[in-house]
Amino acid sequence: MTRLTPSTKSIALHVGVVLLLLALNFLLPEYHRGVFARVLVLAVFAMGYNLAFGYTGLLSLGHAMFFAAGLYGAGLTIYHLEWSVWPAFGAGLAAGVVVALAVGFLALRTTGVAFMIVTLMFAQVFYLMTLYFTTYTRGEEGLVLPQETRVLGFPGGVLDLSDPSTRYLVALSLFAIVLAAILFLVRAPYGRSLIAIRENEERMRMLGYDVFANKLMAVVLSGLFCAASGAAYAVLFGYVGSGFAAIQYSILPLLWVLVGGAATTLGPLIGTLFMFYVIDTASSYTTAHLMVVGLVLIGVILFFPKGIIGTVRERWLPWLP
Amino acid sequence: MAFGPYFLLATLEGLVTAAVLSLIALGLSLVFGVMRVVNVAHGEFYMLGAVLAWWVASLFGGHPAIGFMVALVLSPLVVAAIAFVAERLVLSRLKYEPEATIVATIGLLYIIQQLALTFYGPEARPVEAPFHYRMQLPWFGYSAYKLAVIGFSIIMMLATWFVLTRTKIGLIMRATQFDRETAQAFGIPVGRVYAGVFALGAGLAAVAAVLIVPIQQAHYLMGHDPLLLSFIVVIIGGLGSLRGTVLAAVLIGLSDGIISMFFSPTLAKMLATLAVAMILVFRPQGLFGAAAR
Amino acid sequence: MAAVKPLLETHGLGRSFGGLRAVDGVDFSLPEGETHAIIGPNGAGKTTFVSLICGRVAPTDGRVVFDGKDISLMPAHKRVRAGIAYTFQITSVFANLTAFDNVALAVQRQLIDDHERGLSSRALTEHGVDALQKVGLGDHADKVAGNLSYGHQRLLEVAMGLALRPRLLILDEPTQGLSDSEIENFIALVRQIGEEATVLLIEHNMDVVMALAERITVMEQGRILAQGAPAEIRANQAVQQAYLGG
Q: Which is deepest, A96, B104, B151, C61, by most CB within 10 Å?
C-alpha cells in the first residue's frame, strides 16, 4: 500500500492542475487568457524538450527544428495545399517524427559537448532551409494563415480556432494530453530506463539494454511532442515564420525547463509561465528583455540548478514525479 | 571578366576571411583546449571588440590611423578584462561542468548582445581604415589594407604560437591543460590560468574584430556568423588542436569565399554546416585532429 | 560434474592495448553448472578476459562461444539478454535511485523478453522484491542506493545480476572491501546462486576461492598458467612461483 499513496497523490495533483487551468479560462481577463493560451502551447514544447534533456540527460541545442518541423508541417500544408486542420496537424507531427528520427540516428552517435554542437548545427541547417526555400516559406517575414483556414472540423460542427476561448480550450486539451502522456511515460518502466541511462549508460548496457535504441526512442518522442506544440502554434495563432526555427527557439525550452525544474512533470509549465511573466513585466520597464533571459539563465544555473519544482521536490515533496 | 580574375579575387577575399577567422577560432580553440569549456559567447566578444573599436576611433580626430591604432590596443584589452571578470564571477563557480558552462555562456551571450543594442544601438557603423592605398593588380585594384589584415593576423598567430610553445606562460597553460589536478599540486594557480586563458581567447576575437571593422561595419548582431564559422573551424581542425585550427580556418575561409562566389550564400552555409555536423558525427577527432596529436 | 557440453568456450581469445597483450590467445572452457574462479596477480588480464566474454571490450582476435553459438561479434547488451550477466568490479549501482528501482531495471529488462509472463507491474514488484530478499536486502527496498553501506551496495550489485536470471553470472572481485562477517554471508549467497547458475568468479581472497570454486584458472600476463581443482592448484609449483614472486 505504501507504494500506492504517492502515485494517487501525484495523479490527483496533475488532475487538479488541469482543472485549475480549465477554471482560469473563465476567470482570467482577456489579455492574460491570451498569454496563458500561448504558454500552454509552448509548455508542450518544453515538456517535449524535458523528456530528452531532463529525463534522458540529452542536452540538445537544436530542438527548434522539431518545433519548426511541426509548425511548417502544419502551416505549409494549410497555406499551399489547402489542407484542413486535422490532416495538417498530422502532417506536422509526421514531419517532427521524421526529422527526429534522422537527427537522432546521427546525433546520438556522439555524446556530451559534441552532441550539443551537432544538434545545434542540424538545427541551423533546418533554419537555413526555411530561408533558402523562401518562395514557399517567405523566410523571416513568414506566412499568415487566413482565419477561414483555421477551423477544426468535428462530426456535427466546427470550432473557430481564432476565437480566444476556443483557442484556450484547444491549447489546454493538447497540454493535458501531453502532460498525461509524460506522466504515464515517466512512471512506466520505460521512464525508469531513461533516467537510468542518464545516470549511467554503461551499467544499463550491462543490464541488457540497447542504450542507443532507447535514446533514439526518447528523441523521437521528444520530437513528436515538440512538433505537436509547433503544429498547434501554427493553427492556433495563425503565423509561421523562420524565427521559430532560429537558435533562440532552441535555447528557450532549455531555459524554461531549467527554471521550472528538469526531470519534473510540471516544471516545464511552471518555467514557461514564470519566464513569460518575467519578460512581460520587464518589458513594461525596459525593452531589454534579452538581458532578462541572460541574467535568469546565469542566475538559475549558478544558484538554483534544480529549478522551481526540482527545489520543491527536494525540500518538501519527494513524491513529485 | 574571365574566370581567372574572378578566381583571384575570390581567393584574396577568402584569404582575408581565413585570416580573421583563424584569430577568432584560435581563441575559441584555446579556451576549449585548456579549459574544456565551449564558449558560446565567443562571437559576442568579437562583436564587443568591433563596437568598442568604433567607439574608440570616434573619440579621436585627425588621421584615421591614430584612432585605429589606439582601438587595436585598447579594445582587445577591455574585452579581455570583461572576459576575465565573467570567468571569475560565473564560470569558475560552476566548476567548469560542461553543460552548466554552456548554459551560462548562452546567458552571457544574451547579456552582451543586449548591452550593445542598448548603448550602441541597432545601426551598423564603419571605422575608417588607417590607410587607403590600392594595389594595382593586372585586372583590378585591390585594397592594400586587406592584405595588411592578412599579414597582421599571421603575426598575431605566430606570436600566440610563440607564447604557447616557447615561454613559461605557455608551459603553465599546457601543464594545466594536460592535467589540472597535478598542475594544482605543483602550485600552479589553476583558477587564474583559466581566467587568463578565457581572457586571451576573448582578446584574440576582439583583435580580429578591430581588423575587420574597416572592411565590414560594426553591428550588434555581427557575432553570430563568426561564432558558427569558428565552431566549424575548431571541429574540422580537431577540438583543442591549434595547428588543425589554423589549417581548417584557411580551408573554410578560402572555400567560403570561393563557394559564395558561385552559390547563394545561404546554400553555401547550409551545405557547409551539414558537412561539418557529419564530420563531428563520423570523425569526431576532426579532419586533422589525429595528425596533430 | 560429468563431461557435459560446455556453456562457454573461448578459442584463441586475445586483446591488445597498443603494444600490450592484455589477453593473449586464451583457450578456455566452462561446463554448465560449474562455479569457477579466476585468480592471478594484478595486471594478469583477468578483468579484460571476462570483459571480452561479456562484450564490454572487443577482442582483437579469437572467438567466444556461448551455448554453442559464436557470440564474438554480438554487442554487449545482446549478450546480457542471451544470459551472461556481469557485476562490476567497482560498485556501479544507480546511486540516485532506490534499491528497488535498481533491481527493477534488471527485472523489467528480463520480463520484456519473458513472453510467457510479460511485463506487468505485479510481476515487476514480485521479482524485484524476490531478488532483494535473496541477497538479504529485503528491508532496504525503498532506500536510495547511494545511501546504503558499501557492503549493501555490493549486495545490490549482485541482486541486479541475479534479477537478470542469467545462465552465466560473472562476479568481478565481489568481496573487495567487505568485512569478514559480510564475506561469510557472501560465500553462502554465491553457493546458493551456484546451484542454479554457472558462476565465473574473479577473486583475490583465497579463502573465498577455496570455499566456492569447483575448478580454478590461474592467469598470468594474459595467459592461462594453470587450471584444475583447488587441491591441484594449491600444489602447483608454477602457481606458487607466480604468487610468491618467482
A: A96
Mutation site for A-interface testing, chosen from C77, C93, C158 by largest number of A Cβ within 10 Å = C77
CATH number for the domain spanning C160: value is: 3.40.50.300
CA A262 – CA B103 distance, rounded (Å): 14
**Distance (Å) from the C-alpha of residue C165 to the closest C-alpha of chain A?**
11
Entry pTM: 0.87
User: Is B145 at the interface with chain A, CB within 8 A?
Assistant: no
- With an 8 Å Cβ cutoff, are A211 and C56 in contact? no
pLDDT in tens, A66-95: 999 999 999 999 999 989 989 999 999 999
In a domain, B251, yes or no: no
Domain-embedded: residue B177: yes
As for the ipTM of the complex, it is 0.87
In tens, the pLDDT along C122-148 reads 888 888 998 999 888 888 888 999 999
For chain A, list residues whose CB is within 8 angstroms of any CB belonging to chain B: 59, 61, 106-107, 109-110, 112-114, 116-118, 120-122, 124-125, 128-129, 131-132, 251, 254, 258, 287-288, 290-291, 293-298, 301-302, 305
pLDDT digits 0-9 by tens, A203-217: 999 999 999 999 999
Instruction: Reply yes or no on whether the pLDDT at C99 is more than 80.
Output: yes
B264 part of a folded domain: no
CA angle, residues C46, C47, C48, in degrees to nearest 5: 90
Distance spanning both ends of chain C, measured CA to CA: 34
Residue C69 lies in a domain: no
Give residue B42's domain range.
Answer: 9-129+137-222
What pLDDT is attached to residue A5? 67
**What is the nearest CA distance from C190 to chain A, expressed in angstroms?**
19
- Name the band, by pLDDT with cuts 50, 70 and 90, for residue C244: low
Residue B229 lies in a domain: no
Per CB-CB distance under 8 Å, the chain B contacts of A122 are 274, 277
Question: Are C124 and A209 within 8 A, CB to CB?
Answer: no
Q: Would you kindly state where each structural domain of chain A is located, as residue ranges?
A: 9-246
Contacts 24+ apart (CB under 8 A), B220-224: B220/B47, B220/B51, B220/B113, B220/B116, B220/B117, B220/B120, B220/B121, B220/B122, B221/B47, B221/B113, B222/B46, B222/B47, B222/B50, B223/B42, B223/B43, B223/B44, B223/B45, B223/B46, B223/B47, B223/B109, B223/B113, B224/B43
Chain A interface disruption, residue of B37, B95, B259, B281, most A CBs within 10 A: B281
